[in-house]
What does this fold into?
Amino acid sequence: MNENIKADLAKISKQESLLVFPGFDEATAWQVGSLLRAAAEKLNAPAVIDIRSGNDCLFFSAMPGTTPANADWARRKRNLVNLLESSSYAIGLQRELGQDLPALMALDPRDYASHGGCFPVRVAGVGMVGTITVSGLPQREDHKLVIDVLSEFLRVPLGDASF
It folds into this structure.
């Protein structure tokens, strides 16, 4: 099992280095959010989609079947990614390997969740400028939905970094 976790962590690291935007603004967020919603609809997935630049909400969608708890999960995942600048799924997998950063940092689990679905938005030459969060599917699937849509949008093949 640890080998599967380590393999996913290596893939996520590569995903984070590949999926970098040339620029990111409200129009980009709307396009990505719309693609995420369409992809979730194809899966018939009850998902909350939340795209932010800092704390500014640029896109939000709560699909049929979601509850306020999904939006709260998105908030908690987003808080963690904003603090650690790494995918929430990677942080959760590191916890499974015994490296529980949120616990070491005494972060309140009510406000920080190390579960998959939040991905850092990075801009080339700038760094992290926001987050893209999906909540409502199992955590690996939340993460996969985000990276698959970003790969398509950015026209960056993931190759061996795909799930």
In short: Strands lie at 48-53, 56-62, 118-123, 127-135. The two ends are 16 Å apart (CA to CA). The first strand starts at residue 48 and ends at 53.
